[in-house]
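Before we proceed, please read the two lines closing this message. Report back on whether the structure tokens fit the sequence:
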Amino acid sequence: MRETVHHFYQALRKQLFLRLLLLISVLIIIIVPPVSQAATLTAFERLITGSGSETVLGVAPVSTGYIIVGVTDSPDFPVTDSSTPAGGKDLFVAKLDLNGALQTVRRFGGSGDDQATGVVVDSTGLITVSGWTTSTDFATLNPLQAINGGGSDCLILQLDSSLTLQFATYLGGAGEDQFAGLVHQTNLDRFVFVGFTTSTGAQFPFPSPNGASADVTKTTTDADGLLVALARDRTIPLATYHGLGPGN
């Protein structure tokens, strides 16, 4: 009888030991990827800063690395051109290689606050940036709207692959107008910007009060959702707001 019990417990311990080994093997497989898989993973950390505060607010991958955009208030932000602080906060556009090394950094701004909020790069290499500004002296280039309409205005910038500015314009009315981001609509080859506006329909430079909005007249100064499309020829085929009344 004792011998039978002894053999039973020996068999039980052996089974438990084998199950424990199997569990450990599974955990190792889950936690530690195969060497061939780990070897293909790359990562980097890059600090881009001056003596003040910086925030990266958009990134777009390109074949040679990454384009990032954001905002800085540092007087000594590390640019690669002759751009200098103009006052308040400035937006920046930077190009990094695939390992995260800085290639080109530029800052843009006027005497107020200027902020980039998003970036896309199309198949031609054109870099399009969304943002907003309170500056009345932001340096525009071939603009659709050359002056600030009042308060904060939306900003659109376009640069070539070397970060040379090709186009910069205000877009806004007498209220607060800000873009929060953008996408490239490839089937129509349009750049579509979204954000908000407190400007009335008469104040904001809409091509026409498009019927895509429930609040097509927009006589209030409450914030409404804003959508603007920019075509390849830098015309605006669509601009509309979305809101149902006060408090949007």
